[in-house]
Amino acid sequence: MRGVSFLAWMSVAVCLAAAPALAAERTIVINEVELNPNGFDRDAEWVELLNVGTAPIDLAGWTLSFDYPIDGEASIVAESRTLQPGQRFVFVYAGLRLRNDDGIILRLRDAAGAVADETSPFRDIHDDGKTWQRIPDGGDPALPIWLLRDGTKNAANK
Predict the structure, then answer these.
(1) Taking a C-beta distance cutoff of 8 angstroms, is the pair 125, 36 a contact?
(2) pTM of the prediction?
(3) What is the mean pLDDT of the chain?
(4) What residue spans define the domains of the chain?
């Protein structure tokens, strides 16, 4: 591929090959992930959620997985929080830091515990402010593509 480094091409290929199975109706998706922010990671790593559905969704009871220092899930909100169609919500892994050098897969579970979305395996070993982003913004359910780009926290992916 002319003008594209082999590493960038492999990142896209790996993300396409490892794409999760799609749910019948997409509502809330993981849209952007910051695994390795500039500086110290604890309390600075975040996940942007996006309501791609047509109805408001209450995030109460929803969780996001993590795998460091142990495997687990974190509650997204402490109390009721409604996410309107097209609205974003940035969740910060408070008191945690995520594994940067392994192929971490993040899973979003709804209040009933069903997997609503999951990422491809991500790796980010550079403190450079780049984030894994769905392209196009919100993703295409037929062809999920994730790229490592300059962060667009709480804004449309470019």
Answers:
(1) yes
(2) 0.81
(3) 83
(4) 6-150
